User: Which sequence fits this backbone?
């Protein structure tokens, strides 16, 4: 199993609503997370993430929301990306702070 690592950097002195953090993953994606109501929210988009029924490629956007205190989160994505007819799924996950 290959673990995903995310490096988060922020210039906020304290974590308050509106604070942002730059994210970089060892899987090659980057994003900006924004703290809102105690949750870090961010989206990762894969430009050619899925092939539609007509053979064209469409982006897939994956939305993450993570509780700032517990690091428990949810991931939400559409099974067809931006192609019609997909099913939106939501699954729990947990981050682990290292270092």
Assistant:
């Amino acid at each position: 199993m290959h673990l995903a690592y995310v490096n988060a950097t922020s210039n906020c002195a304290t974590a308050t609503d509106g604070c942002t953090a730059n994210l970089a993953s060892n899987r090659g994606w980057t994003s900006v997370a924004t703290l809102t109501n105690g949750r870090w929210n961010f989206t990762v988009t894969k430009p050619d993430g899925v092939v539609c029924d007509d053979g064209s490629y469409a982006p897939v956007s994956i939305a993450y929301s993570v509780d700032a205190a517990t690091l428990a989160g949810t991931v939400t994505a559409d099974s067809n990306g931006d192609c019609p007819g997909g099913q939106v799924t939501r699954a729990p996950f947990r981050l682990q702070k290292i270092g």
Summary: Residues 4 and 26 are 6 Å apart (CA to CA). The beta strands are 6-9, 20-25, 30-36, 39-51, 57-67, 72-78, 88-94. The first strand starts at residue 6 and ends at 9. The chain has one domain: 6-94.
